[in-house]
Amino acid sequence: MSRVYTIAVSEKVRRVVHLTDQVGTRVDWLEILPPEEMAGLLARELAARGFSVADGRALRVEPDGVAIEVELATGRVVLGIAHDRAYEAEGARTGRSERRDDVALAKRLDRELRTALEDSIARERDEDQTELTQALEKRLAEVQPELDRVGTEVTKAALVAKARRLGEVRSVEEDPSTGAVRITVGL
Q1: Most-buried pick from 1, 78, 83, 137 (CB within 10 A)?
Q2: Residue 179 lies in a domain
Q3: Terminal C-alpha separation, the chain
């Protein structure tokens, strides 16, 4: 009569994963002045809102770690976030063999266990990535009104600058309910 031996393997897998995501939008304005002047007006408006401006870009990092970067020449906006996350999974597998030192069975159990643990970590990582994307999309929805106001202010500043080239600007009036701007110019 043969004996049956239990072969057991156990494993702990640790991974540190760098999660990142980005979403994009743009600051819209009317092209009233040459592009470099429009970029200058955009830079000035963003700097007034806490962005640091350098090398044709404006950047502001929010307290929640979201970075908002604006390309001044085009108004292209990218919201991005990145963080590292440690994952850990552990488990065990057992099998039965008539041989006490069944290396093939031990290797198969080890492969199956590693695959299961890596799959578990991958599922957790995918869930975290989905949450990160959803949080970033929500953050974009929160920031979009500010970006819309920036576009409005840049357009208004460009209209005033253009009006100054035509003559003396006597008054600038804005209707807060409609956003309409009236500029009175003396020629």
Answers
A1: 78
A2: no
A3: 113
